[in-house]
Each structure stands twice: as structure tokens, then as C-alpha cells.
Amino acid sequence: MAPTSTDAISMFKQSRNIGQTPQENGGHQTNGNGTETSQSWSTYQNRSNTQKQRKENGNVRTITVDEAVKELEEKAAMGHRNNPMSRSALWGQWCRRMEDTRLDAECKYIDPAQDNIAVSFDEVFIRSRALEEAVASVIRMPVSDDAELTFLFSHCLEGDAMFHRKLADGLRMIGECFKESQRSLPDGFVDHLLVVLTALKVNPKSKRDSGYALHKIDEEIKFHIAKSQELARGGAAAAPEARHKCTAELMRLGTEKQKMLACSKPEGETDEGQLRVVFEELVTVLGTMLSEFSQTHSQVQRQHEAFQNKIKMAMMGDDAEYMKVLEIDQQLDNEISRLQARKLELQRELEEVSMGLANAEQRKRAHHSSSSKIINVYQQRMKAFQGDDSKMTNAFKSSQSALDRCQKSHQFLSMLSETTISTISERSQRVSREREEANRQVLVFLRGHLESVRDASELVKRRFHFCRSKLDSMRSELEEAREIGLADLAADLASAVSKFEDMQREAVKGMEGSDRELERVQKVLDEMGEPDESDTESRGLRDDICNLLSSLRLSASNGATNGD
Q1: Which of 126, 168, 317, 376 could make an SS bond with 146 (beta carbons 3.0 to 4.6 A apart)?
Q2: CA distance linking residue 103 with residue 33, whole number of Å
Q3: Torsion sign, CA atoms 354, 357, 363, 365
Q4: What is the residue-averaged pLDDT of the chain?
Q5: What spatial distance separates the first Cα and last Cα of the chain, rounded to whole Å?
Q6: Under a CB-based contact definition with an 8 Å cutoff, are residues 404 and 290 in contact?
Q7: d(CA 282, CA 139)
Q8: Please, are residues 205 and 263 in contact by the beta-carbon 8 Å criterion?
């Protein structure tokens, strides 16, 4: 199972010793800066109480998202360009503000483009270029500890914790590759990497809206679909009007969901073709470095091997003489030991053994005096070769290290290219699929709404014809009652005529409302546009809706011609 962003948060806390028990930390619980937690917690609690008191007194600073983004970018630029040694502290501050929203209790971020709704620090950070500044600083000046950067990736970028870990390590490796080789970064290299990073950013609007709001809309849609089905099975007299209201609400909810999903695609998203071009340029730069490092390493390796062979050839004769000296010396030591043992065992041959021992010792001294020149020459040659050997060995190791680092950077860029393009492609396919499903759902709602409009329109027309026929007969009866002097009956008939006239006016309003509903459906249909050629189901639904619209408009025009 792939790790999630929660794993990155846990790794960040573990690397900073956040949340350790006293037993795990030698009996004293400390925070990431080495201070005791009791003191740190007291400071944090006092600050929280102060922020709460300021909030109650109304001393909360209200700032727009654009202003907050500008301040954040200026602080990021100043921290990464003017004082890069303090960037870890700046990253830690960002991580804590993302982890605990109470740290921003004194400040309220509002978005004027979204009816001044309040947004979190996460959204402000994602919409800014602060993360790009941090990544550019890592490439120009690598850091040894990138736990905070991995934590920021887990909040701002697509992918899982494993991908964020590889991304942080790969960016640091690229920076070390240029730094160790003492090469300057090519023009546009950092900008190309920042284009990839921006393409991997999550959409802050989607992150804000795709949670509770979208889930709430889906729940309301399910409720109204069940209600519509129940009304269709009921068959009551009031069912057409109630079903008409239900389908109208379904159409509104479907349109709202469609608009919410339409904004889930990031603004100005980089397409796959542009990303492939960017990755080709990045891989080309590192490929050129890799070929140069390979040639340099091959040359240094050949020089190193030739130098080692030269040392072996130069010392081959001296080694034989030196080994011969040691062999003779060992033989003489063995002879001395054997003679000494024999001296102890053979007291009778003491004089002979003593003479032999003296003779052997004399030969050993003579041998040492004659072989001292050979040993001195051997040691001098070894000292002379030792300096050159160290230089060649160091050069070989440095070349090997640069080659390995460049190869890893090249492999990382290849992996990043495939992962980024696949991630962007999956996200585009997912958004397109969700939008197609939402459009198809809206078309189903439109068709159901038109069917309910048709049923309601027929019911209204029946009421209109019924009222008109009743009014004609009752008006003639009213005139006749007045002529024959039936005043009480005439009054009752006049009251009934007045009620039927009111019902007839209501029926006329209902027919006008049906025309407005047809215009509303046509407007929603025009805003959706034509579906794709491959989406046969949506095209079939759209054709059914158009046929229903045409038949309802024709029925309305025929009714108007017949005097309705």
C-alpha cells in the first residue's frame, strides 16, 4: 500500500523529536530545538491565550489572499536569497502554520473573488510562489536535511509520500551534482524544474471545495432522486406539481455540481506536450554532463590503472631483493634458535656451539650492513610514490563520485518525467470523467424535469378547459336566473363564476410558468454545449431533451392557436 501525506507528517515529527515521551528522550521531553517541552508548552499556551484575547477584543487582522501571497513571496525571496542559512527555520515555521491553524489566529485571510470567504494558510501558500523559491534555493545551495521540504511537498503537490520523498532527494542530488562538479547552473534550468513543480501543485479551490460541499450536494441529489421516484410511483393528483418542484431542484443541484467540478482543473495548467519538452531539455543538460563525466572518469581510470602498473613494474625487482633479505634473515633467526636450543641440550659441545653461534651472529651483522642500502633505497622509492599515489587515488574517487551522482540525477529526472506526466494525465482524465458524469447527470435531470413539465402542463390545460366550459354554462345560467328574478340563485352563481375565473387565471399563470421553464431548460442546455462524439449516451440524452422541447413548444403554439 502506498504511503500517504500523513506518513510525511509523521516522518517530519519524528525527525524533529516532536511528540516523544519522556522515556524515549532520557526522561526529559524536548522539542525540535532542544528546549524542554514544559517550557515550550508554557510559551505556546501563553501565546495562544494572548491570541484568543485579541480575537475576542476584535484585534484580528483581515488581509486579502493577494496581499497575503505578496507578503509571503517577499519573505520567501528575502529568506532564500539574502540569508539562505536560515531557510530551514523558515520552512519549519511554514510547516507549523500548516499543521496548527491556531498559530494564524491573529490573521484572517479572505478571498474577494469568492464572496470574501475565509481561506486557510495552506491555500495562501499553494497560490504563492514560496515553494518555488524554496526549491530554487535547494538546487542552488543543497541542504543536508530536507524533512521540512518533504512536509511542504505533502501539503502542496500531487502524489503520495514516497513520491514526495524521492522528489526532495532528487532535487538535492541535482544541486549537489552541480556543486561538486563546480559547474554553474545553465540558463533556464531552474525555471524548467519550477515549471514541473508548478504543474504538480494541487488546485487550492478543488482542495477547498471538493470535500464537504461536494459531498453535501451528492447527498441532496440522492435524496431528491429518491423523492422523485417515490412521486412517480404514487400516482396522486398532486404528484405532477410536486415532481415538477423536485426535478427543478435536481436540475439546480446538478448545474451547481457541474460548475464546482469545472473549476477543479487548475488555472493555466501545463499540458503534457509542454511538460515533455521541458523534461527533454532537462534530460539533455544532465545527459551532456553525464557524457562529460563518463569521459573524464574513463580517462582518470586509465591514468590510475597505468600508474598502478607503473608502481608494480618499478617495484618488482626491489620486492624480490627485499623478500630475499627477509628470507635470509628468517633463516638466520631459525638457525640461532636451533643452536641456542642445542647449546642447552648439548653441554658437551658447548665450545663448538658457541663458536657456531658467534659465527652466525657475525654473518648476520655483516648481512645487515650489506643489505641496509637496499632497504633504504626501497623505503625512499615507496615514499616518493606515496604522494603521487594519493593524488591519483583521490582524483579517481572524486571522478567516480561525480559520475555516480550525475547518473543518479539523470535517472531521477527520467523517473520524475514519467511520474509527473502520468500524474497530470491521470488527474486530467479523472477531471474529464467526473465532468462527463456530471454533464450526463444534468442531462438526466433535464429530461426528467421536462417530463414533469409536460405532465404539469397537461394538467394545467385540462384545468383551463374545464374552467372555461364551466364558465360558459354558468354565465348563461346566471343571466337566465337574473332574468326570471331568482336573486338568491344568481348570487350563488355569481360567487361560483368568480371562483372559476380565479382558477382560470391560475391555470393561465401555470401555462406561462411552463413556457419559462422551457426557456430555463434551453438556457442550461446551451451553456453545457455539445457532448463529445464518443459519448453516445450523452448525445442520446441531449437528442431526447431537444425532441421533448420541440414537442412541448409545438403543443404550446397549438394551444395558443386554438385559443388556449
Answers
A1: 168
A2: 18
A3: negative
A4: 76
A5: 68
A6: no
A7: 13
A8: yes
Cα-based distances in Å from 232 to 186, 222, 239, 460, 502: 69, 15, 7, 18, 29
Confidence label for 268 from pLDDT (cuts 50, 70 and 90): low
d(CA 95, CA 388) in angstroms, rounded, equals 50
* pTM score: 0.56
pLDDT for residue 428 is more than 80: yes
What is the Cα–Cα distance from 503 to 510, expressed in whole angstroms? 10
DSSP structure string for 390-404: HHHHHHHHHHHHHHH
Displacement of CA 47 from its chain's centroid (Å): 32
CA distance 154 to 13: 13
Number of residues assigned to the chain = 564
Nine-digit cell at 446?
433535464
Neighbours of 273 (CB within 10 A): 9
Please tell me the predicted confidence (pLDDT) of residue 313.
67
**Are the C-beta atoms of 12 and 99 separated by less than 8 Å?**
no
Distance, in Å, from the CA atom of 148 to the CA atom of 154, rounded to the nearest integer, reads 10
The residue to which cell 513571496 is assigned: 73
Tally Cβ neighbours within 10 Å of residue 72.
Answer: 19
CA dihedral 399, 403, 404, 405 (to 10 degrees): 100
Backbone phi, then psi, for 504, in 5-degree steps?
-65, -40
Q: What is the CA radius of gyration of the chain?
A: 45
Q: How far is the CA of 443 from the CAs of 233, 516, 527, in angstroms?
A: 22, 18, 12
Give the helix/strand (H/E) hosting 206. Answer: helix 204-209
